[in-house]
Structures are given as C-alpha cells and as structure tokens.
Write a structure and sequence with these properties.
globular; single chain; 5-stranded mixed β-sheet; Cytochrome P450 85A1; alpha+beta; transmembrane; Cytochrome p450; 17 helices; 3-stranded antiparallel β-sheet; binds protoporphyrin IX containing FE; 10% strand
C-alpha cells in the first residue's frame, strides 16, 4: 500500500514537473516577452503549451478568457491560440488604427488555414495587394447603390414575400428559416436560382463547405476539413457548368453572374478569370451566410423580448405599407426611410456580437503601443468588448435600439460592427436591406410567441443549438 502511494506521488510530481518544464520551454521559445533578436519587447502574456498554446482555454472560456487576461495584463496581451502566436488587442483606438493601417502597415488577413484552403486562392477576404483591389472592385460593383435600387432590392422583396408565405398557424424554427433565407436569397441574386433541386444540391455542399472552413486542417476521409474540400470541388463544378450554360445561351440576364461575366468588357476594369468569378461568388455567399442569418434570428429574439421595440418597428413598417397595394414591393426610398429598423439591426449586431473580432497577420514587424510584434504573428482585433463599453453604449447589456437614433453612432470612430479600413464589409448595405425586408414582411404579416425553452449560445458563434422555435399567427 505504502509503495503504491509512493509510486502515485512520484507520478503526480513527475507530471507537474514535466508540465511546468514544457510551459517554461514554450515561454522561452517565444523569447520570454523579449524579442529573440533583442529588438523591442512583446506585450505581456503567456504562450501556454507547445503547439496547442492556450487554444483549449480560449475555446472553453470564451469571452472570460479575454476578460481575465485583460485584468492581468491590460488591453494588449500575447497568447498562442488557433495554432499561432497571437497578440490580442482590446483597445478600441488601437484596433481602429490596426484596421486603417492595413497592408501598407504590414497587416494582411490572418484567417485560419482551413478557411484559406477551402474558400480558394482568389478568396477576397484572404488575398492582398493588386489581386485584392481587383476582387474588391468587382464585389463593390455588384452591390453598389444603383444595383441595390434597381436590381437587388426588387429581387430581395420578391424572395422575402415567397419565403415568409404561409407561416401562420404553425411552429417555425427561426434559425432554420433565416439560414435558408440567407442562402436562397443570395442564390437568387447571383443567378436567379429559386428553391428546387439545384438550390437543394448547392445548399448541401455549402453547408459542408462552411463546416470545413471552421475545422482543423486535417485532410483525412471523414474529417470536416476533407468534406469541406469535397464540397468545394462539387460547388466549383456546378458553378463552372452554370457559366458554360450562360455562355452557350448568349442571353443577357439581370443577375450577378451575368454582371461578372461581362465585367471588364468595356475596358473600365480588369476582366476576371472564371476561377476568380467562382471564388468571388463562393466568398459572397460565405460572408453573408452566417452573419445575415444570425442577425435576423437574434433580431426576432430581441423583438420577442422587447414588446415596446416591436411596436415601434411594426409602426414604421405599417406606415410604409399604408400607401401601397399588398402586391407592391418596397422601394429603395422606403428602405432608406427605415430609421428605426436600421437601429434595431445595429443594436442586434452589437448586443449579440455576431462578429467577435477580426484576424490579421503581420508581414513585417509591427509597432503597437511601444511593443514590437514580430513578422508572422497574428493580431486579433478583438472588437467584442467595444460593444459593451458603457461610455460608448450606456447601460450596455440592455437592448435599446433608440440609442442609435440619438447620436449618429454609425459614424463613431469606434463603430466596427462591419469592420473598418480597406476591408470594411462591402455587403453592409445590401445585407442591411435584406434583414430590413425580412423584418418588414415578418412584422406586418405576423404576430408570434416563443415556443418552449430555446437556448442561445453566444460563443464561439451565436447559435441556437436546438433551434429558436416560435408559434406564428396572422397579424
Ligand atoms: C449583418 C451582416 C454582415 C456583417 C455583420 C458583416 C461583417 C463583416 C465584417 C466585420 C467584415 C470585415 C472582415 C475583416 O476585416 O477581416 C466583413 C467583410 C466582408 N463581408 Fe461582410 N458582413 C455582413 C454581410 C455581408 C454580406 C451580405 C456580404 C455579401 C454581399 C458580405 C461580404 C463581405 C466580404 C466579401 C468581406 C471581405 C471584404 C474584404 O476583405 O475586402 N458581408 N463583413
């Protein structure tokens, strides 16, 4: 018995010793806070275990991981998460500077390898330099205000009418419906695709692709990464076929695919290759999919919980409908007049924190508040805490859309819900128009109440693991 106890104590001491040696070694490996070349200092912090760093703690503790370290080290600290040495920045002013600094200041997108691999080498959110300019120019061309007014908004309106048809008298899972909405609405804008076998096939592949981009890059049959790649291959061949059919038919269509195939013909911008067009379309669907569906779902949730906000929103939309026949679509002017709706969308994005932060990679040594971040590190522009800053948003944990009407918060220098600088979201207006149109038909057609207990997780992504169920009736 005594021998067993001795062995046990020996094992425990051995494990503790080995662990602290490994942790220590990893700190030394990253210079112990000193740059290895002796050129400047790193921000305070810890690097965790070799290889894994502090990823497990980060994923398990979520926002409190950040808060605890901020308490210990301040608003700028180093860590090792998601496979990379990383500096987390929670200082709003410094974050703004980092986003504005962009490529010229040594910062390019730093998203995980799986995302880069699966979204393709021309993915707008990963490329930089002249290729980014070309891809971004093409993307902005598709969603410019004139296109939103004459082409996109009528399509969005027609789609939402259909999508929100016949919900009365049933229990609806808003999460499933808003996911479907984000995808199908994008497909209609891209190539006039309506619900049917083709959209079902695309949906299956896109879902696998999305899962693949947020998985570990292990390319073995059965892994999400592997399946994401397979999905990408199938999607690419479907899109290639669509392009070939368009070319052979020769008919002009009023959609994004047609605009991309024709773009550059007049010599005003560079002509995109088919591969670039395909990567642009995949990036467009991908970027809007989760952000749009989650924001729409959370808006429904917050409106359910705040009847006064729902009343005011409904009043805005009933006023718009007053002068219209039931079949008449909402116009660009109607959309622009939806001040309270816009406030509801911004408040939803803020309170739910649909985007936690943005990742950048350093292409050269980068100075941050006197520290020097080495080339090849990640900078996590962590914007989540800005959303709960009581100076910027008094009583920050309360859903209060009216706060957005009092001051023009969207032009506040620390407004980063859609990013900032040269990579600011190009889909901001079209995305807002889509959510606004969804809310328009939802609140003017229906009243609803939540059904059962719906759990909503806020980290690492906002989701309702078992759906968000509501019982819907005609208004
Ligand atoms: C509520 C909806 C949305 C939110 C909250 C949102 C948020 C963001 C944010 C924060 C970024 C900056 C990423 C970074 O700097 O690394 C971004 C970039 C981007 N977004 Fe959105 N987005 C939304 C909807 C959309 C939609 C509908 C589209 C497509 C039309 C879209 C397309 C893009 C693209 C292509 C980029 C990359 C831009 C670049 O790197 O130049 N987004 N978005």
């Amino acid at each position: 018995m005594a021998l067993l106890l001795l062995v046990l104590v020996g094992v425990v001491v051995g494990v503790v010793l080995a662990s602290s040696l490994l942790l220590r070694w990893n700190e030394v490996r990253y210079g112990n806070g000193r740059r290895k070349d002796g050129d400047g200092c790193l921000p305070p912090g810890t690097m965790g275990w070799p290889l894994f760093g502090e990823t497990t703690e980060f994923l398990k503790q979520g926002p409190s991981f950040m808060k605890q370290r901020r308490l210990r080290y301040g608003r700028l600290f180093r860590t090792h998460i998601l496979g990379c040495p990383t500096v987390v920045c929670m200082d709003p002013e410094l974050n703004r500077r980092m986003l504005l600094q962009g490529e010229a200041g040594g910062l390019v997108p730093g998203y995980p390898q799986s995302m880069l691999d699966i979204l393709g080498r021309n993915n707008i959110a990963a490329v930089h330099g002249p290729l980014h300019r070309v891809m971004r120019g093409a993307m902005l061309g598709l969603v410019r205000p004139a296109a939103l007014r004459t082409s996109l908004l009528p399509k969005i309106d027609a789609f939402m009418r259909d999508h929100l048809h016949g919900w009365a008298g049933s229990v609806v899972d808003v999460q499933a419906k808003t996911k479907e909405m984000a995808l199908l609405s994008a497909l209609r804008q891209i190539a006039g695709i309506t619900a049917g076998p083709l959209s079902d096939a695309l949906k299956t592949e896109l879902c696998s692709l999305v899962l693949g981009t947020i998985s570990l890059p292990i390319n073995l049959p059965g892994t999400s990464y592997y399946q994401g790649f397979q999905a990408r291959t199938k999607l690419v061949s479907m899109l290639e076929q669509m392009i070939a059919e368009r070319r052979s038919s020769g008919d002009a269509q009023d959609d994004m695919l047609d605009a991309l195939l024709r773009s550059g013909d007049d010599g005003t911008r560079e002509k995109l290759t088919d591969e670039q067009i395909i990567d642009l379309l995949i990036a467009l669907i991908y970027s809007g999919y989760e952000t749009m569906s989650t924001t729409s779902m959370m808006a429904v949730k917050y409106l359910s919980d705040h009847p006064r906000a729902l009343d005011e929103l409904r009043r805005e939309h009933l006023d718009i409908r007053k002068g219209k026949s039931p079949e008449e679509a909402i116009s660009y002017e109607d959309f622009k007049s939806m001040a309270f709706t816009r406030a509801v969308i911004s408040e939803t994005l803020r309170l739910a924190t649909v985007v936690n932060g943005l990742l950048r990679k350093t292409t050269q040594d980068v100075e941050m508040n006197g520290y020097v971040i080495p080339k090849g590190w990640r900078i996590y522009v962590y914007t989540r805490e800005i959303n709960y800053d009581p100076f910027m948003y008094p009583d920050p944990m309360t859903f209060n859309p009216w706060r957005w009407l009092e001051k023009n918060m969207e032009s506040h220098p620390h407004f980063m819900l859609f990013g900032g600088g040269g990579r600011m979201c190009p889909g901001k207006e079209v995305g807002t128009a889509e959510i606004a149109t969804f809310l328009h038909y939802f609140v003017t057609r229906y009243r609803w109440q939540e059904e059962g207990k719906n759990t909503i997780l806020k980290f690492p992504r906002v989701e309702a693991p078992n759906g968000l169920h509501i019982r819907v009736q005609d208004y």
